[in-house]
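Now for a sample.
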Amino acid sequence: MKMKGKSILILILSIVIIAASVYVALFGIGSVKDGSAENVTLGLDLAGGVSITYATAIDNPDAQDVTDTIYKLQKRIDEKGYTEGEVYQEGNNRINVDIPGVSDATQVLEELGKPGLLQFVTEEGVVVVTGEDVADANAYQDSGDLASRYKIELTLNDQGKDKFSEGTAANVGKQIAIIYNDEVIMSPRVSEQISGGIATITGLASFEEANRIASTIRIGALPLELVELRSNVVGAKMGQDAIDTSVTAGIIGILIVFCFMIVFYRLPGLMADIGLIFYAALTIIVISAFGITLTLPGIAGLILSVGMAVDANIIIFARIREELSVGKTLKASVKAGFKKATSAILDGNITTFIAAMVLLFMGTGPIKGFAVTLALGLIVSLFTALVVTRLLLTALAHLGIQNKALYGLAGERKPIKVFEKRWIWFIISMVVIMLGMIMLPVNNMTKGSPLNYDIEFVGGTSTLVTVNEGEGYDTYEALEADLLDMVVEATGDSTPQFQNVKGKDEFIIKTLTLDNTIRITLEAALIDKLNITTANIQSETISATISKEMKRDAILAIVIAAVFILVYITIRFKDFRFGISAVAALLHDILVVLTVYTVLGVAVNNSFIAAMLTIVGYSINDTIVLFDRVRENQRHMKRGDYVGVVDLSVSQTISRSINTSLTTFTMVLVLYIVGVASIEEFALPLMVGIISGTYSSIFIASPLWVMLKQKEDKKGNLMHHGKKA
């Protein structure tokens, strides 16, 4: 009776805590709504705005110069009223500028410009002052001077004041050219010596011209010359559409998973659903409270982690059913089920976590966002499965809800003859992989590239346009034909590429790398032609320098993840053959997914890296659950009966593998159907990877392990007989 009262208290407290978490996630705490979904910091791809990556013109800049440049850029952004703008260093010689929530992001790029080298040079080529000597420059209108109404007030700092005084004294009546990045932007004439540190520049035709030149002077007043490597402009409407579609996908996917869990796992499934509600609420609270920036790939990571979070519960419930089937009480079955499932759950999540950490340390901004939310989702899902779901099920068991029909019983399983038909499985895989390998040179000959490299891997500018409803064309071909000449004229690129995204509503224009002036020209032409606004346009520019690094980092990230996972499995299972078999299975999955990219021409971009490493983690997770059973069953096997052990282990875990794949596949499928273009590119190969991961763990990794063990025994027997002889 005492235990029953305690169980009731646990249930009540659990429900109260879960309900409170849901309330905080929805409405927050206090007037500022701390911890709520509304208070989550949105990345540029969701909030709209501009992101720029600069590199210093010199490879190894002085650390103080970098710090000073960051400070001046941040101050300039603050002065323009972009209070949420952020300037930060990346690596040794790169500076990132992020300004979210900007209504006209391309205008920000125009105002901020491309920081470079500013010099004031005499007619004889003597440098009077540089950007380091300039404190500020501002345009103004002098209503009292009708002859020269538009002027610029130039302010020198302490070190520049004396230089400018000497330079103007020696050049009275002569011109001093203002040169920015080797281009003369103006050559005002010196009328007198300027010794006070403040000069007035006249002779400007309009306030717009004065403001533009003043902005250029301010931009050039940086300690370091900067070169733009990458810029991304996202319209506010594009960001809102991404949020709406992703949230819709998440809700639909979660509801489907909830129904599946209840139908298939009955009362434990209901408890798992309650735990998943807590998981979702707690994840939102953590993201909000710790100021984690949520990006579009980050949302994909969250939705994917929901599907993967179900896996821990499925493993547990499968174990509980097995214990019930051998006649144990419900209390004993729940306790034993959690105990036996824990090792597989921990190993599977740790290997996926390794892949997430590789992404975090080697990926760029958006991919890091995906890695953070995926890693966070793994940690929170472990807590909800091993703590929350356990508390709920244990409490139910002690309350006297003992009807085993509410929990389900494991049916009698006949061993599945996996190893017997191993060559069939191997041949199927080889055919699929060879198709991908053959398409690489075919694509190279017919399309000029083995893969459909997006601008992240080759450099260039990508412009995504949303056409207003009712303003579309009858066919996509008609739209492309009507816009082609206009795009060529606006960009100067004679061979722009058009790509249809969603029927007649969205399309992408890919061109050579465009500077901001040309981007604005293209944007204006599209706005006029299609009757849209800047909110309907998103553009991204990436230099060839960054694209080369991305190719290198993509390969390196996958190799590093595979090595770390191999080491972990070898240590954890105390047998390197498990590790070799698991890594062989994940390489199989990578090559199968690569076939999707080669055959279907899916764009290879940032999503490619995220998809590949997610597949690595997922594939390993699936294989580890099977190998955990193999390790357990080895203790009871006949000596050398590796085939029997594998066949039995597959039969015991195949329902779990299928159910986990179904739930994860469902989440990703909904993303593919409902999500925006960049999520679609991520979801398609991931769906293939989920299917391949389940297939490879059963039909590739397990028979390969048997073959390695048989080879080991054969070698041991030969050595034994040799010694005997």
